[in-house]
């Protein structure tokens, strides 16, 4: 009789775990209801991410034409892109708090409005007038508004995936939303040179970038009606804001696995930023043209998006976040070493293009998976907080790496192959240092990073209860009946 009482208590435990309100939607044999509206919210975020990236790099491919039209120096044109990095670092903390506290809807709508106002203001600042003295400040103000929108948009994919998508679609949703950003970078590198062949075409170029932002802003403002669906798609979706912001920061700072990911993956982001920023300057010294450097950058992004798509689908099916991240980081380190060698060799276009493609394929695919991994190892801290701090780490290290690598360059007395258009610099030492840093932090990640998938464990616990209770219950009552929320009986089976 005593054993019978224990079994009854176990049965009641399982019944409570499965039939409580968050998981009571068991219609059609499904534990959680999914809403088609999630794809619309994902589409809006993708469009926002892509648009914001095109605004960021609008002027970089047409720096000379922009400087000529705005009557400024090339250094001042470079600041139109650098302002994104300067603004993102201090604003990131406020953005993570906003996403986890005020919700996804308010954050995305605010990001859409800032994105639109920045794009429109840039166009208005380039309209012909009596004086050109205020054009650059107005354009810079527009860029700054776009920079303010960037963290609101870039931090959202992980939160969106957690709130709107089930566990078997989260990595894919995160990948789609995250890869919209490099797609925007690719579009900016294609559209800007085509539309602004002369300085007089700069206003037309900015108008072309401003029109889509207005449409996207309308879609976000009118179409996104809530931060989350009426019912959660997974057990963890209800507790995505379970820890207050300050308490969440404290938990992250005491989480050894998360700190290793923060440092090592942040270094990976910095290496990729250096690669994208300095690619043209590195290749021109050995006689490679700007067009070829642009082709290598395009291959880097295109193959990266392909790799991210493949890995996102794989991880959604297997849940092997840690293994996938470690393997891809290892291949990235190999690619970084290979690039540091072939980039210093003239007349090796095929090898350079192949290495850039290889680097992008394994490097870009890590980003969405690593962001999901940051949530898995830090749960129940809010998704925006855990993923946002990794992004901040990457931005800070990017600044340090770029300054360090540029400081290590030396001027070449004789550079007959150079197509740089100015005094050529030797990138041999900086490239070796970059490869060394990438390898060092990859090795640290491989050796020291190990974690449980806390969010997946919590979802399993919330859905099925303890394994012991589940086993006992199945033996006693294989299929069973209970009262649903609407007082109608339903037959429930464990999957």
UniProtKB/TrEMBL annotation:
Coiled-coil intervals, chain numbering: none
Pfam families, alphabetized: MFS_1 (PF07690)
GO molecular-function term, one example from the UniProt record: transmembrane transporter activity
Main location: membrane
Transmembrane segments: 39-59, 79-99, 106-125, 145-165, 172-194, 206-224, 257-279, 291-315, 327-345, 351-375, 387-409, 429-449
Classification via InterPro entries: FLVCR1-2_SLC49-like (IPR049680), MFS (IPR011701), MFS_trans_sf (IPR036259)
Localization annotation: Membrane
Entries under CDD domains matching the protein: MFS_MFSD7
Key words of the record: Membrane, Transmembrane, Transmembrane helix
Membrane topology term: Multi-pass membrane protein
Signal sequence region: none
Cellular component GO terms, alphabetical: membrane
Annotated stretches, region: Disordered: 476-495
Full protein name: Major facilitator superfamily (MFS) profile domain-containing protein
Species for this entry: Astatotilapia calliptera (Eastern happy)
